[in-house]
Specification:
alpha/beta, Rossmann fold, 2 domains, 8-stranded mixed beta sheet, 14 helices, 13 strands, globular
């Protein structure tokens, strides 16, 4: 166990790599961020309430599919990484970065319990001269209206003896084109000095930093990024439904429109939205808007369209089975891909889970294949108790229905195309690999 900081954080201490950085929450956001700061020469103290995660990290084992054990071990070998569940050690860090969940309640309202609980946990261990920065996506006003009062409970004052900033995470697990270091960081603080220190800290680890005028602006920036994607994906999902009814191939339409060198950005349809950002974050702003007596109609409509897509996929599957005089009830059905995006094992808010649930409710005999998700875990909404099945010729051929939900690169699409009897492809995975179903039927949905 180390000692409390002896000097307050400053730009000089940051520049000299003498600042110790603490990160609360060693998950999909916190762990890559911790590894980045260590590689940039900082001492890093990671905090997590999950003692199993702490144990795994201390032994050089990764619990995230897109981070190898070797990467964890290489960071441990520097001697600059320590992890703990002991939050009394918060006073050892010059900067404390909060990477905690911001989910929605069942009524689609912001669930601030993780932020509030974390602030309540660390406040008694804060000492004068520390910087606290929030990374979690949230509605404009959170840093100022929620965090500041909680962190000032024991006498510290933001801008004087405590510094408070906001910098929204832009983590994209599995992205091979942009690593954590390469993604520009938006930063701000509640006072000029808070902003200066927050900017200095992130500038020391990231390739570029964009300073904005207020924490509210930074909070709104992240929401805009995800709302932009949510609305455009909803639009193309709605067009997919329309074009299917009109006998038009939506994928061909998008490909042709993409030939325009200006004024068009392609978005692609799918079985619904997943992950920790796009299905959730827009509703933080729509909730906040109601406090200003405004209704964000685009956000609400996009949410409705995207939420309904798993039902549309199952409906298409039912129609396809009916064409073969079969019922979904009792049909052997395999879902390909449970993760919410390709080449990772992250199933948070994945539309595949909702599709599985609907199939189960309608009596399908369920199975799945996902090289990144070896078995389903018990979750708040779901408990399927399934294990990933191999894509053998016999197994594929025994299924009445196969639904491609996530197009991982490592999936054996050639075997699916060669031996699948009825495939509903929600990602255009077979066609974009120039594969045709040889002995069965393909429904691109």
């Amino acid at each position: 166990m180390g000692k409390p900081i002896e000097q307050p954080i400053s730009t000089e201490i940051i520049a000299g790599r003498r600042a110790r950085v603490g990160i609360v929450g060693m998950g999909y956001v916190g762990l890559p961020l911790a590894m980045l700061f260590v590689r940039q020469g900082f001492r890093l103290l990671g905090f997590d309430i999950d003692s199993e995660k702490v144990t795994e990290l201390k032994h050089g084992r990764s619990y995230l599919s897109h981070i190898d054990d070797e990467e964890i071990q290489s960071v441990l070998d520097t001697g600059r990484l320590d992890v703990t569940s002991d939050f009394s050690r918060i006073d050892e860090a010059h900067a404390v970065l909060l990477c905690v969940p911001t989910p929605l309640t069942d009524n689609r309202q912001p669930d601030m319990s993780f932020i509030e609980a974390t602030c309540q946990t660390i406040v008694s261990h804060l000492v004068p001269g520390q910087l606290v920065a929030l990374e979690s996506t949230t509605y404009p006003g959170t840093t100022r209206e929620t965090m500041k009062p909680l962190l000032e409970q024991h006498g510290l004052r933001v801008g004087e003896t405590l510094f408070l900033g906001y910098s929204p995470e832009r983590e994209d697990p599995g992205n091979r084109d942009f690593g954590v270091h390469d993604i520009p960081k938006v930063v701000s603080g509640l006072t000029a000095e808070c902003t200066e220190l927050t900017s200095a800290l992130y500038s020391s680890a990231f390739k570029s930093v964009r300073v904005v005028s207020s924490c509210e602006t930074a909070e709104a920036t992240k929401l805009l990024e995800n709302i932009f994607r949510s609305v455009n994906i909803a639009m193309v999902n709605e067009l997919k439904i329309l074009f299917d009814r009109m006998g038009i191939d939506v994928w061909e339409v998008i490909e042709a429109a993409s030939s325009k060198p200006f004024g068009f950005m392609p978005f692609y349809p799918g079985p619904g939205l997943g992950g920790h950002c796009i299905p959730i974050d827009p509703f933080y702003l729509s909730w906040r808007a109601r406090q200003y007596e405004l209704t964000t109609r685009f956000i609400e409509l996009a949410g409705e369209v995207n939420t309904d897509m798993p039902y549309y996929v199952v409906g298409r599957a039912i129609d396809a089975l009916n064409d073969e005089r079969k019922s979904l009830n009792g049909s052997k059905t395999m879902v390909i891909g449970l993760a919410y995006k390709p080449n990772v094992g992250d199933v948070r808010e994945s539309p595949a889970l909702r599709i599985l649930e609907i199939l189960k409710e309608k009596g399908a005999e369920l199975s799945y294949h996902d090289p990144y998700v070896p078995r389903t875990e018990r979750m708040r909404k779901y408990d399927f108790q399934l294990r990933s099945e191999p894509l053998t010729r016999e197994n594929i051929g025994s299924k009445d229905l196969i639904i491609i939900v996530t197009d991982h690169d490592s999936i054996d699409y050639h075997s699916l195309a060669a031996h699948g009897r009825l495939i509903v492809d929600t990602r255009n995975a077979l066609r974009k690999r120039s594969l045709a179903v040889s002995g069965g039927r393909l429904i691109r949905s």
